[in-house]
Amino acid sequence: MKLLTTLLALLAIPLAAEPTAISCGNLVYGKNQTSVCFASTFLKDAAQATGLEIDPEFKRIKLGADEVFTTPMCIFTGEGEFTLNEAERKNLKQYVMNGGFIIVSPGCSDEKWNAAFKRELAAVFPGHPLEPLSMDHELFSMVHTITELDAGSRVGHIKLQGITVNGRLAILYSPEGLNNARNAKGCCCCGGNELRNSREINVNALVYALIY
Prior knowledge:
Strand content: 5-15%
Structural class: alpha/beta
Radius of gyration: 16 Å
Number of helices: 5
Strand order of the largest sheet: 2-1-3-4-7-6-5
Number of strands: 7
Distance between the termini: 18 Å
Largest sheet: 7 strands, mixed
Helix content: 25-40%
C-alpha cells in the first residue's frame, strides 16, 4: 500500500479520477527494426504489484517521432546491424536526459546488434559511459528483492550496466538477455544467454522508472 500511495502521489493521479493507463514503448528504429522477442508479461506483473493501470502490451513507438515522449519507459532491443538517423539520435538523448528510462538488451544476445548499440550510445552520450550496476542499487529492491543475476552456470558472475543522469539511472543495459523470450509472443527459436530472473528485474525497472 505504501508503494501504491507513493506512485499515485508522484504521478499526480487523483484516487477518484478515471485512471489513465501507463504505457511502455517498444522502440522502432533504423530500417524499421524493433523487437519480437521481448516478453511483455512483466507489465501485467507490475500492474498487479502496484495497483496501477498499466497497459499489458507494448506500444510500438518510432524513436524518431515525438510520441516517444509520451511514455515513461521503453525497451530498445532487436537483432542485426543498425544505424540511427539524426532524428532518432536527437530523440534518444532528449528522452533520456529529460526523465525517460530505457531497458536495453540485444535480442537473442545478438553480437552484431550489441556492437551497433554500443557504437550509437558512444555517439549520443559521449560523456556518460556505461558503468556496472551494483547489486545494492535501488532498482534491485523496488518490488522484488534481487540479490543475484541468475544466468544458470554463470550465476553471480555477471552484472547489469547502466547510464546515470543527474543521480538517476536512465538506461539499464545487459548483453545477457533481459527479454524473457520464452514468454514472448511470436518469438521463435531465440537463443542466447537469457537471465532467468529477467521478468522480476523488468518489473523492478518499470517501478523504478515511475518513481525516479
